[in-house]
Amino acid sequence: MMYTNPLARNWTCSSTIDPAILPFHKTLPNYGPTPLHPLPQIARELGVANVLVKDESHRFGLPAYKILGASWAVYRTVAEELCIPATASLADVRKAAQDKGYEYYTATDGNWGRAVARMASMLGAKAHVYVPKVMLESTKNKIAHEGAEVIVVDGDYDDAVMEAEKVSKEKPGFFITDMAWEWYTKIPQWVVDGYSTLMVEIDEQTRSIAGRGPDLIVCPVGCGSLAQAAIAHFKHASPSAAVLTVEPETAACVMASLENGCITPITTGDTTMCGLCCGTPAFIAWPYLRDGIDVHVTITDEEAKVAENTLREMGVHIGPCGAATLAGLRKACREGKEEIYLDHNSVIVLLGTEAPRGAALDMA
Ligand SMILES: Cc1ncc(COP(=O)(O)O)c(C=O)c1O
Protein backbone atom coordinates (compact mmCIF):
# COMPACT_ATOMS: atom_id res chain seq x y z
CA MET A 1 0.00 0.00 0.00
CA MET A 2 1.11 3.54 -0.62
CA TYR A 3 -0.02 6.80 1.00
CA THR A 4 0.95 10.21 -0.37
CA ASN A 5 0.69 13.63 1.23
CA PRO A 6 1.36 16.35 -1.40
CA LEU A 7 1.11 19.06 1.29
CA ALA A 8 4.30 17.72 2.94
CA ARG A 9 6.32 18.95 -0.04
CA ASN A 10 6.17 22.55 1.15
CA TRP A 11 5.84 21.89 4.87
CA THR A 12 8.83 22.96 6.96
CA CYS A 13 9.58 22.14 10.53
CA SER A 14 10.43 24.92 12.94
CA SER A 15 12.02 22.83 15.71
CA THR A 16 15.70 23.43 16.39
CA ILE A 17 18.25 20.90 17.54
CA ASP A 18 20.35 21.40 20.67
CA PRO A 19 23.90 22.16 19.44
CA ALA A 20 25.32 20.29 22.47
CA ILE A 21 24.27 16.87 21.14
CA LEU A 22 26.94 16.16 18.52
CA PRO A 23 29.78 17.36 20.81
CA PHE A 24 28.33 15.11 23.55
CA HIS A 25 28.36 12.05 21.27
CA LYS A 26 31.90 12.86 20.23
CA THR A 27 33.01 12.54 23.86
CA LEU A 28 31.69 8.96 24.14
CA PRO A 29 34.20 6.11 23.76
CA ASN A 30 34.60 4.92 20.15
CA TYR A 31 32.59 7.71 18.53
CA GLY A 32 32.98 7.88 14.77
CA PRO A 33 30.50 8.62 11.97
CA THR A 34 29.07 5.37 10.60
CA PRO A 35 29.69 4.75 6.87
CA LEU A 36 27.47 6.00 4.05
CA HIS A 37 27.89 3.47 1.25
CA PRO A 38 27.15 4.37 -2.39
CA LEU A 39 24.96 1.82 -4.18
CA PRO A 40 25.64 2.56 -7.88
CA GLN A 41 23.78 -0.54 -9.12
CA ILE A 42 20.62 0.56 -7.31
CA ALA A 43 21.02 4.10 -8.67
CA ARG A 44 21.18 2.60 -12.20
CA GLU A 45 18.24 0.28 -11.50
CA LEU A 46 16.09 3.23 -10.41
CA GLY A 47 17.44 5.79 -12.89
CA VAL A 48 18.67 8.32 -10.32
CA ALA A 49 22.08 9.93 -9.69
CA ASN A 50 22.94 8.42 -6.30
CA VAL A 51 21.56 5.95 -3.80
CA LEU A 52 23.48 5.89 -0.53
CA VAL A 53 22.88 3.70 2.51
CA LYS A 54 23.73 4.85 6.03
CA ASP A 55 25.18 1.77 7.68
CA GLU A 56 24.25 1.62 11.39
CA SER A 57 25.38 -1.97 11.84
CA HIS A 58 28.21 -0.81 14.13
CA ARG A 59 27.45 2.24 16.24
CA PHE A 60 29.70 2.55 19.28
CA GLY A 61 30.28 -1.18 18.87
CA LEU A 62 26.54 -1.96 19.07
CA PRO A 63 24.49 -3.35 16.16
CA ALA A 64 22.04 -0.45 15.75
CA TYR A 65 21.67 3.34 15.93
CA LYS A 66 19.66 3.32 19.19
CA ILE A 67 22.59 4.18 21.46
CA LEU A 68 22.54 7.70 19.96
CA GLY A 69 19.12 8.35 21.49
CA ALA A 70 19.64 6.28 24.64
CA SER A 71 22.91 8.00 25.54
CA TRP A 72 21.57 11.52 25.16
CA ALA A 73 18.30 10.73 26.97
CA VAL A 74 20.02 9.08 29.95
CA TYR A 75 22.62 11.84 30.20
CA ARG A 76 19.98 14.63 30.00
CA THR A 77 17.74 12.91 32.53
CA VAL A 78 20.50 12.69 35.11
CA ALA A 79 21.89 16.14 34.36
CA GLU A 80 18.46 17.67 34.79
CA GLU A 81 17.81 15.80 38.03
CA LEU A 82 21.10 17.09 39.42
CA CYS A 83 20.63 20.61 37.99
CA ILE A 84 23.83 20.26 35.95
CA PRO A 85 24.02 22.17 32.62
CA ALA A 86 23.58 20.06 29.47
CA THR A 87 27.12 20.96 28.44
CA ALA A 88 28.75 19.20 31.43
CA SER A 89 31.07 16.31 30.61
CA LEU A 90 29.92 12.74 31.06
CA ALA A 91 32.64 12.33 33.69
CA ASP A 92 31.22 15.26 35.69
CA VAL A 93 27.70 13.85 35.50
CA ARG A 94 28.96 10.44 36.54
CA LYS A 95 30.78 11.93 39.51
CA ALA A 96 27.79 13.99 40.63
CA ALA A 97 25.46 10.99 40.30
CA GLN A 98 27.79 8.60 42.10
CA ASP A 99 26.27 8.75 45.58
CA LYS A 100 22.66 9.07 44.51
CA GLY A 101 22.09 5.40 43.83
CA TYR A 102 20.17 6.05 40.63
CA GLU A 103 19.17 3.04 38.58
CA TYR A 104 17.62 2.84 35.13
CA TYR A 105 14.50 0.93 34.15
CA THR A 106 13.53 0.13 30.62
CA ALA A 107 11.79 -2.42 28.41
CA THR A 108 13.04 -3.76 25.15
CA ASP A 109 12.81 -6.36 22.46
CA GLY A 110 16.56 -6.02 21.90
CA ASN A 111 18.71 -3.12 20.79
CA TRP A 112 17.14 -0.42 22.91
CA GLY A 113 17.67 -2.25 26.21
CA ARG A 114 21.24 -3.02 25.37
CA ALA A 115 21.88 0.64 24.58
CA VAL A 116 20.36 1.84 27.87
CA ALA A 117 22.37 -0.80 29.74
CA ARG A 118 25.57 0.39 28.04
CA MET A 119 24.86 3.99 28.98
CA ALA A 120 23.97 3.11 32.58
CA SER A 121 27.27 1.30 32.95
CA MET A 122 29.11 4.35 31.55
CA LEU A 123 27.56 6.27 34.45
CA GLY A 124 28.63 3.55 36.88
CA ALA A 125 24.99 2.58 37.50
CA LYS A 126 22.75 -0.43 37.05
CA ALA A 127 20.05 -0.89 34.43
CA HIS A 128 17.03 -3.17 34.88
CA VAL A 129 15.83 -4.30 31.50
CA TYR A 130 12.38 -5.86 31.21
CA VAL A 131 11.97 -8.17 28.25
CA PRO A 132 9.07 -10.10 26.73
CA LYS A 133 8.70 -13.79 27.41
CA VAL A 134 9.66 -14.61 23.84
CA MET A 135 13.25 -13.47 23.54
CA LEU A 136 16.27 -15.37 22.35
CA GLU A 137 18.59 -16.47 25.15
CA SER A 138 21.53 -14.99 23.28
CA THR A 139 19.80 -11.60 23.12
CA LYS A 140 19.20 -11.65 26.88
CA ASN A 141 22.84 -12.58 27.42
CA LYS A 142 24.03 -9.64 25.36
CA ILE A 143 21.96 -7.24 27.46
CA ALA A 144 23.20 -8.86 30.68
CA HIS A 145 26.74 -8.64 29.37
CA GLU A 146 26.42 -4.84 29.53
CA GLY A 147 26.03 -5.23 33.32
CA ALA A 148 22.22 -5.03 33.35
CA GLU A 149 19.71 -7.12 35.24
CA VAL A 150 17.40 -8.78 32.70
CA ILE A 151 13.86 -9.46 33.92
CA VAL A 152 11.64 -11.67 31.79
CA VAL A 153 7.99 -10.65 31.90
CA ASP A 154 5.18 -13.13 31.40
CA GLY A 155 3.83 -11.27 28.39
CA ASP A 156 4.76 -9.24 25.34
CA TYR A 157 6.75 -6.05 24.83
CA ASP A 158 3.87 -3.82 26.00
CA ASP A 159 3.60 -5.83 29.24
CA ALA A 160 7.35 -5.41 29.73
CA VAL A 161 7.01 -1.62 29.33
CA MET A 162 4.22 -1.48 31.92
CA GLU A 163 6.19 -3.56 34.38
CA ALA A 164 9.37 -1.49 33.97
CA GLU A 165 7.43 1.72 34.51
CA LYS A 166 5.64 0.36 37.58
CA VAL A 167 8.83 -0.81 39.28
CA SER A 168 10.72 2.40 38.43
CA LYS A 169 8.16 4.40 40.43
CA GLU A 170 8.99 2.47 43.57
CA LYS A 171 12.78 3.04 43.30
CA PRO A 172 15.23 5.96 43.17
CA GLY A 173 15.66 5.61 39.48
CA PHE A 174 14.43 6.60 36.06
CA PHE A 175 12.13 4.99 33.53
CA ILE A 176 13.84 5.50 30.17
CA THR A 177 12.06 4.50 27.00
CA ASP A 178 11.79 5.73 23.42
CA MET A 179 8.01 5.24 23.25
CA ALA A 180 6.01 8.39 24.08
CA TRP A 181 2.53 8.71 25.55
CA GLU A 182 0.56 11.83 26.41
CA TRP A 183 1.82 11.56 30.01
CA TYR A 184 5.45 10.74 29.10
CA THR A 185 7.07 12.98 26.53
CA LYS A 186 10.24 14.63 27.86
CA ILE A 187 12.56 11.62 27.80
CA PRO A 188 11.32 10.30 24.41
CA GLN A 189 11.94 13.78 22.99
CA TRP A 190 15.54 13.58 24.23
CA VAL A 191 15.79 10.19 22.54
CA VAL A 192 14.64 11.73 19.26
CA ASP A 193 17.01 14.65 19.75
CA GLY A 194 19.87 12.18 20.21
CA TYR A 195 19.18 10.72 16.76
CA SER A 196 20.01 14.13 15.24
CA THR A 197 23.69 13.16 15.21
CA LEU A 198 22.89 10.52 12.59
CA MET A 199 21.16 13.14 10.43
CA VAL A 200 24.01 15.64 10.76
CA GLU A 201 26.48 12.93 9.69
CA ILE A 202 24.30 12.12 6.66
CA ASP A 203 24.25 15.75 5.59
CA GLU A 204 28.03 16.04 5.75
CA GLN A 205 28.71 12.68 4.11
CA THR A 206 26.15 13.18 1.33
CA ARG A 207 27.63 16.57 0.51
CA SER A 208 31.08 15.09 0.28
CA ILE A 209 29.97 12.14 -1.92
CA ALA A 210 27.27 13.76 -4.07
CA GLY A 211 28.16 17.43 -3.79
CA ARG A 212 24.89 18.34 -2.09
CA GLY A 213 22.37 17.17 0.51
CA PRO A 214 19.83 14.41 -0.13
CA ASP A 215 16.66 14.87 -2.19
CA LEU A 216 14.95 11.92 -0.54
CA ILE A 217 15.40 10.25 2.86
CA VAL A 218 13.99 6.75 3.25
CA CYS A 219 13.28 5.79 6.86
CA PRO A 220 11.95 2.58 8.46
CA VAL A 221 9.14 3.15 10.96
CA GLY A 222 8.14 1.39 14.14
CA CYS A 223 6.66 3.92 16.58
CA GLY A 224 8.05 6.77 14.49
CA SER A 225 10.79 8.28 16.70
CA LEU A 226 13.53 7.89 14.12
CA ALA A 227 11.26 9.27 11.38
CA GLN A 228 10.47 12.20 13.67
CA ALA A 229 14.19 12.93 13.94
CA ALA A 230 14.63 12.63 10.15
CA ILE A 231 11.68 14.92 9.47
CA ALA A 232 12.77 17.46 12.11
CA HIS A 233 16.21 17.62 10.50
CA PHE A 234 15.57 17.33 6.78
CA LYS A 235 12.41 19.40 6.63
CA HIS A 236 14.30 22.06 8.52
CA ALA A 237 17.87 22.01 7.26
CA SER A 238 16.99 21.31 3.63
CA PRO A 239 13.25 21.64 3.18
CA SER A 240 13.49 20.39 -0.39
CA ALA A 241 14.23 16.85 0.84
CA ALA A 242 11.25 14.54 0.63
CA VAL A 243 10.67 11.82 3.24
CA LEU A 244 9.60 8.30 2.34
CA THR A 245 8.73 6.05 5.30
CA VAL A 246 8.35 2.29 5.30
CA GLU A 247 6.67 -0.14 7.70
CA PRO A 248 5.69 -3.82 7.67
CA GLU A 249 2.25 -4.71 6.31
CA THR A 250 1.61 -6.65 9.49
CA ALA A 251 2.41 -3.72 11.79
CA ALA A 252 1.12 -0.77 9.82
CA CYS A 253 0.06 1.58 12.62
CA VAL A 254 1.43 4.63 10.82
CA MET A 255 -0.46 3.76 7.62
CA ALA A 256 -3.69 3.37 9.63
CA SER A 257 -3.04 6.65 11.45
CA LEU A 258 -2.19 8.59 8.27
CA GLU A 259 -5.31 7.29 6.56
CA ASN A 260 -7.53 8.15 9.54
CA GLY A 261 -5.83 11.48 10.26
CA CYS A 262 -5.29 10.59 13.92
CA ILE A 263 -3.26 8.17 16.05
CA THR A 264 -4.84 4.79 15.37
CA PRO A 265 -3.63 1.79 17.40
CA ILE A 266 -3.70 -1.55 15.62
CA THR A 267 -3.09 -5.16 16.54
CA THR A 268 0.22 -6.27 15.11
CA GLY A 269 1.00 -9.58 13.42
CA ASP A 270 4.34 -11.34 13.03
CA THR A 271 7.16 -9.82 11.04
CA THR A 272 10.83 -10.50 10.55
CA MET A 273 11.31 -6.72 10.85
CA CYS A 274 11.09 -7.05 14.65
CA GLY A 275 12.17 -3.50 15.46
CA LEU A 276 9.31 -2.16 13.33
CA CYS A 277 6.65 -4.28 15.01
CA CYS A 278 4.78 -1.52 16.76
CA GLY A 279 1.01 -1.07 17.23
CA THR A 280 0.81 2.67 18.03
CA PRO A 281 2.75 5.70 16.74
CA ALA A 282 4.55 7.64 19.47
CA PHE A 283 2.52 10.56 20.77
CA ILE A 284 5.26 13.14 20.12
CA ALA A 285 6.14 11.73 16.69
CA TRP A 286 2.61 11.84 15.33
CA PRO A 287 2.41 15.56 14.33
CA TYR A 288 5.72 15.18 12.44
CA LEU A 289 4.56 12.00 10.71
CA ARG A 290 1.19 13.51 9.81
CA ASP A 291 2.66 16.70 8.32
CA GLY A 292 6.16 15.72 7.23
CA ILE A 293 5.87 12.33 5.53
CA ASP A 294 5.62 12.78 1.77
CA VAL A 295 5.06 9.13 0.94
CA HIS A 296 4.49 6.09 3.13
CA VAL A 297 4.53 2.47 1.98
CA THR A 298 4.01 -0.89 3.61
CA ILE A 299 6.08 -3.92 2.63
CA THR A 300 6.08 -7.64 3.22
CA ASP A 301 8.75 -9.71 4.95
CA GLU A 302 9.56 -11.25 1.56
CA GLU A 303 10.21 -7.83 0.03
CA ALA A 304 12.49 -6.94 2.95
CA LYS A 305 14.34 -10.22 2.52
CA VAL A 306 14.92 -9.62 -1.20
CA ALA A 307 16.28 -6.15 -0.37
CA GLU A 308 18.52 -7.58 2.37
CA ASN A 309 19.93 -10.09 -0.11
CA THR A 310 20.48 -7.38 -2.75
CA LEU A 311 22.44 -5.30 -0.25
CA ARG A 312 24.46 -8.30 0.88
CA GLU A 313 25.43 -9.09 -2.73
CA MET A 314 26.74 -5.51 -2.89
CA GLY A 315 28.83 -6.10 0.23
CA VAL A 316 26.52 -4.16 2.58
CA HIS A 317 25.38 -6.19 5.57
CA ILE A 318 22.18 -4.71 6.96
CA GLY A 319 19.30 -6.43 8.80
CA PRO A 320 15.62 -6.53 7.78
CA CYS A 321 14.55 -3.23 9.42
CA GLY A 322 17.25 -1.33 7.54
CA ALA A 323 16.80 -3.26 4.29
CA ALA A 324 13.09 -2.36 4.49
CA THR A 325 14.11 1.07 3.15
CA LEU A 326 15.39 -0.38 -0.12
CA ALA A 327 12.25 -2.51 -0.45
CA GLY A 328 10.08 0.55 0.22
CA LEU A 329 12.02 2.67 -2.26
CA ARG A 330 11.66 0.06 -4.97
CA LYS A 331 7.94 -0.19 -4.27
CA ALA A 332 7.40 3.58 -4.32
CA CYS A 333 9.36 3.85 -7.60
CA ARG A 334 7.17 1.17 -9.17
CA GLU A 335 4.11 3.26 -8.25
CA GLY A 336 5.68 6.30 -9.94
CA LYS A 337 8.91 8.17 -9.34
CA GLU A 338 7.18 11.52 -9.74
CA GLU A 339 5.14 10.76 -6.60
CA ILE A 340 8.38 11.00 -4.61
CA TYR A 341 9.79 13.85 -6.69
CA LEU A 342 12.63 11.80 -8.20
CA ASP A 343 14.41 12.32 -11.51
CA HIS A 344 17.77 11.31 -13.00
CA ASN A 345 19.60 13.90 -10.82
CA SER A 346 18.19 12.72 -7.50
CA VAL A 347 20.29 11.80 -4.48
CA ILE A 348 18.63 9.28 -2.15
CA VAL A 349 19.71 8.19 1.34
CA LEU A 350 18.45 4.95 2.91
CA LEU A 351 18.64 4.57 6.71
CA GLY A 352 20.19 1.13 7.19
CA THR A 353 19.38 0.99 10.88
CA GLU A 354 20.71 -2.38 12.07
CA ALA A 355 23.15 -5.22 11.55
CA PRO A 356 21.83 -8.50 10.16
CA ARG A 357 20.37 -10.71 12.82
CA GLY A 358 21.87 -14.16 13.14
CA ALA A 359 24.49 -15.98 15.04
CA ALA A 360 26.63 -12.97 15.87
CA LEU A 361 24.16 -10.13 16.14
CA ASP A 362 20.77 -11.54 16.91
CA MET A 363 19.15 -8.41 18.29
CA ALA A 364 15.64 -7.24 17.50
C1 LIG B 1 16.61 -1.62 13.77
C2 LIG B 1 15.49 -0.65 13.88
N1 LIG B 1 15.24 0.16 12.84
C3 LIG B 1 14.23 1.05 12.88
C4 LIG B 1 13.43 1.17 14.00
C5 LIG B 1 12.27 2.12 13.96
O1 LIG B 1 12.35 3.08 14.90
P1 LIG B 1 11.08 3.82 15.50
O2 LIG B 1 10.42 2.90 16.47
O3 LIG B 1 11.70 5.01 16.11
O4 LIG B 1 10.16 4.16 14.38
C6 LIG B 1 13.68 0.36 15.12
C7 LIG B 1 12.90 0.47 16.35
O5 LIG B 1 13.00 -0.28 17.28
C8 LIG B 1 14.73 -0.58 15.05
O6 LIG B 1 15.01 -1.41 16.07
Give your account of this protein's structure.
- This is Tryptophan synthase beta chain-like PALP domain-containing protein.
- Residues 29-339 form the Tryptophan synthase beta chain-like PALP domain.
- InterPro entries: TrpB-like_PALP, TrpB-like_PALP_sf.
- The protein is α/β, with parallel strands linked by helices.
- The chain has two domains: 2-64 and 192-352, Rossmann fold (3-Layer(aba) Sandwich), CATH 3.40.50; 67-177, 3-Layer(aba) Sandwich (Rossmann fold).
- Helix content is 41%, strand content 15%.
- The protein is built from 14 helices and eleven strands.
- The strands form two sheets. Strands 1-10-9-8-11-3-2 form a seven-stranded mixed beta sheet, with helices on both faces.
- Helix 5 links the parallel strand 4 and strand 5 (126-131).
- Helix 3 packs across helix 5, helix 8 packs across helix 10 and helix 10 (225-234) crosses helix 12 (286-292).
- Residues 359-364 have low confidence and may be disordered.
- The site of pyridoxal-5'-phosphate (PLP) has 16 residues, from helix 10.
Topology:
Elements: E1 2-4, H1 21-27, E2 36-38, H2 40-46, E3 50-55, H3 67-81, H4 90-97, E4 103-107, H5 111-122, E5 126-131, H6 137-145, E6 149-152, H7 157-169, E7 173-175, H8 186-194, H9 196-210, E8 216-220, H10 225-234, E9 242-248, H11 253-260, H12 286-292, E10 295-299, H13 301-313, H14 320-335, E11 347-352
Parallel strand pairs: 3-11, 4-5, 4-7, 5-6, 8-9, 8-11, 9-10
Antiparallel strand pairs: 1-10, 2-3
The protein binds pyridoxal-5'-phosphate.
Residues 64, 111, 220-227, 275-276, 278, 321, 353-354 line the site of pyridoxal-5'-phosphate.
